[in-house]
Specification:
Structural class: mainly beta
Number of strands: 7
CATH topology: OB fold (Dihydrolipoamide Acetyltransferase, E2P)
CATH class: Mainly Beta
CATH superfamily: Nucleic acid-binding proteins
Number of domains: 1
Strand order of the largest sheet: 1-3-4-6-5
Number of helices: 1
Order of helices and strands: EEEEHEEE
Helix content: under 10%
């Protein structure tokens, strides 16, 4: 048995971008910023931001992203960690980690709207949370 599940809580970096697969299914990509804070040895608050790439393939969540997700939105998401190879213009490959939301257990919950979204109807949120396995 194995488990590949990741939960993140953070702010959307840019408005999502939308694409279509070769068979015509819609998908979305966006970046998500998470932060950790601590006090250094001198007692000064320090903050570090991590950026995460998110790809949404679950069609219901793609539509939620299309209608309600904007830059600055505060979101909770649950998906799986995925690595893929990206080819640069000069022919080199490098690995990229991304969070995939592609199966029925995936969650995208908008906790606070971004810059231009007024609200998300209750039926578009989920009560699921990430639990330790």
């Amino acid at each position: 048995m194995s488990l590949n599940r990741i939960c993140l809580l953070g702010h959307v970096g840019k408005n999502p971008q939308f694409y279509q697969t070769s068979i015509g299914d819609a998908y979305a990509r966006f970046s998500l910023a998470t932060q950790e804070s601590w006090k250094d040895a001198q007692g000064n608050k320090q903050t570090r931001t991590q950026w995460h790439s998110v790809a949404v393939f679950s069609q219901g969540l793609v539509e939620i992203a299309r209608q309600y997700l904007n830059k600055g939105a505060y979101v909770f998401l649950e998906g799986m960690l995925h690595y893929r190879q990206v080819l640069t213009d000069d022919g080199r490959e490098y690995p990229v980690a991304e969070i995939l939301l592609k199966n029925p257990r995936s969650v995208l919950r908008i906790l606070q709207p971004g810059k231009t979204v007024a609200s998300v109807p209750e039926e578009h949120s989920t009560e699921e949370a990430c639990h330790d396995a």
